[in-house]
Amino acid sequence: MHLLIKESMNAELINEVREAFIGHFEADPILIFSPGRINIIGEHTDYNDGFVFPAAIDKGIVAGIYRSNSVSCKAIALDLKSTFEFELNKLSPCEEGSWKNYLLGVVAEIQQRKKLIGNFNIVLKSNVPNGAGMSSSAALENSIVFGLNELFKLKMSKEEMIFISQKAEHNYVGVKCGIMDQYASMFGIKDHALLLDCRTIKSKPYKIDFKNYQLLLINTNVKHSLNDSEYNDRRSACEQVASLLKVKALRDVTISDLKTIKSKVTPLDYQKALYVIQENQRTIKAVEAIEKDDLETLGALIFQSHEGLSKQYKVSCEELDFLVEEAKKNNHVIGARMMGGGFGGCTINLIDNKEVENFIEHVSVNYLNKFGLKCSIYPIALSEGVHILN
Ligand code: GLA
Questions:
Q1: I want to staple 29 with a disulfide (CB 3.0 to 4.6 A). Which of 64, 142, 224, 304 is the partner?
Q2: Which residues sit with their C-beta closer than 6 Å to ligand 1?
């Protein structure tokens, strides 16, 4: 039932983009679907060369793209009702926080690699909520790089494309993100999550049998400011600890190694580094639990992950903590945690199918009473990565 509704939602999205493109540019575009992602466990470990366990989902961005005969390029973001014209030889970042920077960043990174592209038009529409921790950014970047690769026959591999997406975010958006989001969105496999080693950029797919459980996302519908600078601060704190330990990344150390420099770092940074080491271990343990079909252990690790993100890594917020506490009070939710960069966005919950309706009702009322704000609920399915639709 849910799946049917969602498939038709994506079909609507595809039609809207196609019709808008034909309406504006009188050409039939190449259509791309680029999904958002969830992450089951392994948060803030990717830029520490560690392990993550994400999956592409059935929500994403549809991009329609085709050559332009005009002297400039035109991009239309249908959700934002925003149109933007730019020239390929005059690229620089525009105002902070604008969606245009993702586009300009991807185009600039492609050109930097001496790949030849011509003028193009692009129409975009998304059903991944922004700032929900479901990686609408990576979905956007990947849709553009994939579309341009196809349109101008650039012959880039998927791996090259995700690094372009990541660099666009570093250099044009200003977030020094890891590679998890772009990877999951590009390489996702239906019904699978990917155990990704962020050092080797190799992953192992796991088909997960959730039995009588399912994954449910609850969006706090808050996105606290400072989000991006806090993210970059966490990354540089980790890099500093790694350099004190004379290793490339925190991935390379154990808790005993970390203890040897305890007196040289602030207690706050010590806890952050400790969190990263522990989260890496949890990610491996989570995959072992899945191999044994042991969803209870997986759930317990997910709860522990939240505890670490909130108390040690300090990237949670009141609203996320509240939703996880609500989940803990319900015996049928066997794991819950914040997902993504933090400071707002979604929690991911592993919940008994039978309890879904009841839990949604309960949490929605309590959240509204506590914060005067509605939360949103999204059931999701693990889906295929970026692909062409026509
Ligand atoms: C954001 C980043 C990712 C990753 C997560 C936290 O989504 O884009 O690279 O670091 O936060 O796990």
A1: 64
A2: 43-44, 46-47, 135, 177-178, 180-181, 340-341
